[in-house]
Amino acid sequence: MNSQISLIQQIDALLPQTQCGLCGHRDGCLPYAKAISEGEDANKCVPGGQPVADALAVLLQRDKLAAEESVWPIQIDGRPQRMKAVIREDECIGCTKCISACPVDAIIGSGKLMHTILTDLCTGCELCIPPCPVDCIDLVEDLKAIPNEQERNFEQDDLRGRYYAHIQREEKRRLNRKGPVVRAAIDSQLFANITQGSEDLPSIELAKKAQISHTLDAKTTIELAKIRTQIKKLEKQLSVRADEKKQQQLIDLQKQLEQLQNA
Ligand code: SF4
Ligand code: SF4
Ligand code: SF4
Fold it and tell me: What is a single Pfam family found in this protein's UniProt entry (predicted)?
C-alpha cells in the first residue's frame, strides 16, 4: 500500500495541479494520478501537454504516447498556452456561484457584491465559467513569463495546498451547507485515504454528521439562526437601495457566519 501511495505521489508531482478535470477525472490531479498508477494511459493531462506525458512515460517506464490535444496553441515549452479568467465586473450580479466552483480559491467577493479574480492565482481551469448565470467570465491569454522548473514546482505545490484547503473547507460545510452547491461533490474519501498514508501531502479529514452536531451546541445554533436572519434582512434592504454602512454590516455578518460554521 505504501509503495502504491509513493508512486501516486510521484505521478501527482508531475501533474500541473490545475485541477481542471480535463483528463476525465472530475476531482482533479490526484484521482488521475491514482488511476495512472493502476494502469490508465498517462497522456490525458491537457494543460500538461507533451512534456508531462513524456515525463510520466519515463517515470513509469512505459512507451511515450502523443498527449491529448488542447484547444489552445502550444507555447515554447511544449505545453498549451496558459490562460486566465477575467470577470466583466460591471455585469457581475454577485451570485457567488463561481466562488464554490474555483478549486484554488482565486475568486473573491460575497453575496450581491461584484466579484473579482486574483489573476496571480488563477490557473485558467475554466471551472468557474459554466456556473455563471450571466456569462460574464472571459478567458484571456496569460502573458506572464513561462516558469522555470523550480518556479513550476513551487507553483504546483502552492496550487495543491490551495486545492486541499478548498476540499477540507467544502468537506466541513458539506453536511450543513446552506449556500449554492455548484461543483459536483468532490470524492473527499479518496483524498482522505491517500493523504493519510502520506507524510508529504496535506491531510484531508472527513466530516461526520454526529461530530458536527455535537460541536454545534444550542447557543451556537441560536447564534447561527440569528445571524442568518440578519443577513437575509440586510440583503433584502440592499437589493432595494445601496447603503455603504449596511453593506459593511452584511460583510461582517457573513464573516461571522462562516467562522461559526467552520468552528
Ligand atoms: S491538470 Fe491535468 S491531471 Fe490535473 S485535473 Fe487537469 S487534466 Fe487532470
Ligand atoms: S478563477 Fe476560474 S479559471 Fe481561474 S482558477 Fe478559479 S475556477 Fe479556474
Ligand atoms: S458566477 Fe458570475 S455573476 Fe455570479 S458572482 Fe461569479 S462572476 Fe458574478
Answer: FeS
Q: Which residues are near ligand 1 (CB < 6 Å)? A: 15-16, 18-23, 25, 28-29, 32, 45-48
Location of C-alpha cell 455535537: 214
Q: How far apart are CA 128 and CA 21, in angstroms?
A: 13
pLDDT tens, residue by residue, 130-144: 999 999 999 999 988
Rounded to whole angstroms, what are the CA distances from 92 to 158, 165, 182, 241?
28, 26, 17, 17
Instruction: Reply yes or no on domain 83-141 having CATH 3.30.70.20.
Output: yes
CA of 22 to the centre of ligand 1 (A): 6
Q: How far apart are CA 245 and CA 237, in angstroms?
A: 12
Residue 18, pLDDT score: 94
Q: Which of 3-17, 148-162, 172-186 has the lowest mean pLDDT?
A: 172-186
Q: Write out the DSSP string of 51-72.
A: HHHHHHHHHHT----PPPPPSS
Q: In angstroms, what is the span from residue 232 Cα to ligand 2's centroid? A: 28
Q: Say whether pTM exceeds 0.85.
A: no
